[in-house]
Design goal:
alpha+beta; 22 strands
Length: 577
């Protein structure tokens, strides 16, 4: 998991609804904005033009060089066994699965039995089967260091993979229960692409398809990756004849849409990081006021583009304020709690998003998003003491001046934020004002996005940091590393890993471990709520608001929009009759 440092910042409509706890069984408000169009209303043929940041150098999403565009293209040509719906619930894809069942809770060892669609085959004619599952497991389990991979959670928990009662059945046995098993083998790669380190480590630019489309060409120099209908596809035929994924920088997308060169384009970055007209790309960054004005003008232009509709949805990602417990005043948990209590998340969300004409809904959970089944606001676990009372307890006294002090030192904290983001700047300014009211001086420190993580977050060079994390349908597995207590490294100093706050506890680790192994969804959600409450109590970070998607789609296009947690169903994307 990588931090999203406002590289695709929050500029869109967040979910409506209150912060009251929702029933675990209730369907959440829709997090997607993809208008429903019956396939019978979509014509056959045509070439759809879809903007990407760059033609992906690889379609292997598990390689370190993979990007979000790698996944976008890969989903058109490769199997995804389970898809997430708008509430981040995993739903089996019948094009690939006749069924998939795990042994019930308490029955060991956990065994998952996949019954594959009997028609599922790679475009070279090879049936999808146990060999593909086995090769991918061995490549991603972490046992062989020759495989150069960003190891996803789960594969290391597998004991064995084997063919079941016939070639269309695959049985996966786990060493210990693994609740997020539905997130594995998606996408699924052919064995030839993963069976050896040499095959796995090569940039994947050609691969047999097992999706509605097949990759025809990927030309980085020309800025175009083309997928065309897969003639061997057994499911509902793709409506579009061809999809061209075109490399168009965010700064050029509004022009490209206005000139009729694109049909689908994400615009969050284009709007949030817009620059004033006439600003050279090599010039120093403009000041915050100019960036804010340029962002507002870009949004206004996006909403007025002729023949296009701007779709908005809550994204699978959230913006948070991280508190570094490894240095300075924030090493004291009482001071961290005071910072958490001083933050008004509602005001922050309103300041960040309302100028963009969107509804601001604050986030109250570190592990589950507003649109996710089981979401609950657990911020009350942070306590009810006023920030001033907590600072008094910690010895930071208000001597009549606006800034509190202790032992002759003022309470001053740096706030790391990505440079050039209008939303990040509004968020930072609001946080600074709120903390100032508690007697804490905050000094915003804009940092270039390309060094934000490696030079600052990863080294602990900050007091407070403002950035975004991706959210997931499998928080017990995928988000566990963000809150795991740092362990001592070879030199005896704690190694934070992805827990940039450096805060943790054995109790929290145990709760997260139990949630990761709990096969009963209701029990797992209870454990996640308990874990989130502990995160609030530790004053690890403050979740602020959910990042949104903002996507422009030509009005003649069906099946595309702002997807939120879900992903494109490419065979349904096309042009209206």
């Amino acid at each position: 998991m990588r931090a999203h440092q406002y590289l695709a910042p929050a500029v869109a409509l967040l979910l409506a609804g209150s912060l009251a706890a929702c029933s675990d069984d209730a369907a959440p408000a829709s997090a997607g904005d993809v208008p429903a169009v019956d396939r019978s209303e979509v014509r056959e043929g045509g070439t759809l033009r879809w903007a990407v940041d760059a033609v992906p150098a690889t379609l292997n999403v598990f390689q370190p060089g993979a990007t979000e565009d790698s996944g976008l293209v890969a989903r058109a040509v490769l199997p995804t066994l389970f898809r997430l719906d708008a509430g981040a619930r995993a739903v089996p894809d019948p094009d690939y699965l006749a069924s998939a069942e795990s042994t019930p809770p308490g029955q060991n060892p956990q065994t998952v039995t996949y019954r594959l669609n009997p028609r599922a085959a790679w475009s070279d004619g090879t049936p999808i089967g146990a060999a593909d599952f086995t090769a991918q497991w061995k490549a991603l389990a972490g046992a062989d260091p020759a495989y150069v991979a960003d190891l996803p959670a789960g594969y290391g928990a597998i004991e064995s993979v084997a063919q079941g009662s016939d070639p269309r059945e695959v049985r996966v046995v786990f060493k210990q229960p693994y609740a997020s098993w539905k997130g594995l083998f998606s996408p699924l790669y052919p064995a030839a692409a993963t069976a050896t380190p040499e095959a796995f480590n090569r940039p994947l630019t050609a691969v047999p398809s097992a999706g509605p489309f097949t990759l025809q060409a990927a030309d980085a120099a020309a800025g175009r990756a083309t997928v065309v209908r897969n003639p061997k596809w057994w499911g509902a035929a793709a409506k579009a004849e061809q999809i061209d994924f075109l490399a168009v920088p965010a700064a050029d997308r509004l022009d490209a849409l206005d000139q009729g060169k694109l049909d689908v384009a994400a615009l969050t970055d284009a709007i949030d990081r817009a620059t004033p007209p006439g600003t050279a790309r090599t010039a120093p960054p403009p000041d915050a006021a100019a960036v804010a004005q340029a962002s507002a003008q870009a949004l206004k232009r996006a909403e007025a583009l002729p023949g296009l509709t701007l779709h908005r949805a809550a994204a699978a990602g959230f913006t948070q304020l991280t508190l570094n417990s490894a240095r300075g005043p924030l090493a004291d948990q009482t001071v961290r709690r005071a910072v958490v209590r001083a933050v008004d998340r509602g005001q922050v969300a309103d300041a960040a998003l309302s100028p963009l004409g969107v509804r601001a809904v604050p986030l109250g959970n570190h592990l589950l998003m507003n649109g996710q089944v089981g979401y609950r606001d657990n911020s009350a676990a942070a306590g009810s003491e006023p920030a001033a009372q907590l600072l008094d307890q910690a010895g930071w006294k208000s001597g009549g001046a606006s800034v509190r002090s202790k032992d002759g030192k003022d309470l001053v904290l740096t706030l790391l934020l990505p440079d050039g983001s209008a939303t990040a700047r509004r968020t930072a300014d609001t946080l600074a004002a709120e903390l100032s009211g508690a007697g804490i001086t905050v000094r915003p420190q804009p940092v270039a996005p390309d060094v934000f993580v490696k030079d600052h977050l990863a080294t602990g060079d900050f007091d407070l940091a403002l950035f975004s994390w991706p959210a997931t349908g499998y928080p017990a597995a995928d988000e566990r590393a963000l809150y795991t207590k740092p362990r001592p490294g070879p030199d005896g100093h704690p190694v934070a890993g992805l827990n940039y706050a450096g805060t943790g506890s054995a109790e929290l680790d145990q709760l997260l471990a139990r949630a990761a192994a709990e096969l009963d969804p209701a029990v797992q959600r209870t454990l996640l709520q308990e874990a989130d409450a502990r995160i609030w109590q530790l004053a690890h970070s403050v979740p602020l608001y959910q990042r949104p998607d903002l996507v422009a789609v030509r009005s003649t296009v069906a099946g595309a929009g702002a997807y939120g947690f879900s992903t494109p169903r490419y065979q349904d994307v096309g042009f209206k009759k």
